[in-house]
Amino acid sequence: RSIVTETLLALRNTRNGYHELAGILKQSNFPDFRRKAAYWLGKFETDAARTVLAEVAAADRDATVQRAAQEALAAMKPQ
Predict the structure, then answer these.
(1) DSSP code string of 59-71
(2) 23: CB partners within 8 A, 6+ apart
(3) What percentage of the chain exceeds 90 in pLDDT?
(4) In this structure, how many other beta carbons lie within 10 angstroms of the beta carbon of residue 36?
(5) Is 30 helix (H, G, I), strand (E, B) or coil?
(6) Using CA atoms, how far apart are residues 9 and 14, in angstroms rounded to an integer?
(7) What is the rounded CA–CA span in Å between residue 39 and residue 51?
(8) Residue 79 has pLDDT above 80, yes or no
């Protein structure tokens, strides 16, 4: 688990990591994938991640994904 955690956190330093997670969050048909993407985008703590999470928190078709995005936003450090 620690290796997976380190790897997922390292995605914030890659060129495509944010885009891949944002794409999963916006396009996946599986709520579990979207919840996990929201969680990890929250760990990125970037303005771009904050924007996507705010959109999903307001308008995702699944209430559990909305809640995950809200929690990820709440856990982020203030701007």
Answers:
(1) H-SSHHHHHHHHH
(2) none
(3) 75
(4) 18
(5) coil
(6) 10
(7) 14
(8) no
